[in-house]
Amino acid sequence: xxxxxxxxxxxxxxxxxxxxxxxxxxxxxxxxxxxxxxxxxxxxxxxxxxxxxxxxxxxxxxxxxxxxxxxxxxxxxxxxxxxxxxxxxxxxxxxxxxxxxxxxxxxxxxxxxxxxxxxxxxxxxxxxxxxxxxxxxxxxxxxxxxxxxxxxxxxxxxxxxxxxxxxxxxxxxxxxxxxxxxxxxxxxxxxxxxxxxxxxxxxxxxxxxxxxxxxxxxxxxxxxxxxxxxxxxxxxxxxxxxxxxxxxxxxxxxxxxxxxxxxxxxxxxxxxxxxxxxxxxxxxxxxxxxxxxxxxxxxxxxxxxxxxxxxxxxxxxxxxxxxxxxxxxxxxxxxxxxxxxxxxxxxxx
Length: 349
Prior knowledge:
Blueprint (H helix, E strand, L loop, with lengths): L11 H42 L5 H9 L5 H13 L3 H12 L5 H17 L3 H14 L4 H13 L3 H13 L5 H13 L6 H14 L4 H11 L1 H6 L10 H5 L8 H5 L2 H10 L11 H11 L7 E8 L5 E2 L15 E8 L2 H6 L2
Antiparallel strand pairs: 1-2, 1-3
């Protein structure tokens, strides 16, 4: 009677209950161990992150995170990129090089190589960046971004023939490279050691007549090496796009006969204090300086300039023909700013 209240151990239902109970206990233990392991890993991970926050994370720690804790590849790249944001290029390079030894996936390896090449470029190691990009292109010749980066390297190294070869490759990939080709052609003229300044000036002016976007490059060259040609064609230039070049010209380098026939030039050099031809200007900064020139107030203010990229909207203290942020060509807009003269700024320090 007593045994009838319980299942006999030979009963099939008893066996099923035992199996279910075993599976439940195993699952519970596995789940509990998983929680314990995850908690331990999170604790160690937080310790690594704490070391990272105070700048002590070493290259091997990234590998430890990647191989031991299965941290996503993109997360490691995000951590490594913080070095780039802080300008610690050598540390970022070390991270990428160390990760390359442990990554087998072709896509990830190519991504790492591209990041490494970009970091070499930013740190000024142009030859190394060129070698990396060429290595990538051996296996991925249609990688457009790498081709564009290689173009920047060749341009910076003044290897213009190779830059044109890269442009040919980009053109085959249906990239629009018309402006880049003209730009490289002009740089090639400027840096050609076999051409005289006279020949360079005429060729540059001819290119400027065809493409007005080149006026800043051409004006800068002519002001340095052929002022007569520049002043003879001054009315063909947009004065406001080269106002900083004109502002910083020495008194003896200015053709005041040409200035008299151009209202904006008169405003610029009245504001500068070289002439007294204008009473006002529609340009706010020039108007202030003209008013001060004609007043009895002893206020020392000069004109400074900021350069803003029309594409990425980033500002830069110096003019460059290619934006260092988005790498677009001839996109900087000149913005005049009132400021204390540089000599006075130093004297206050």
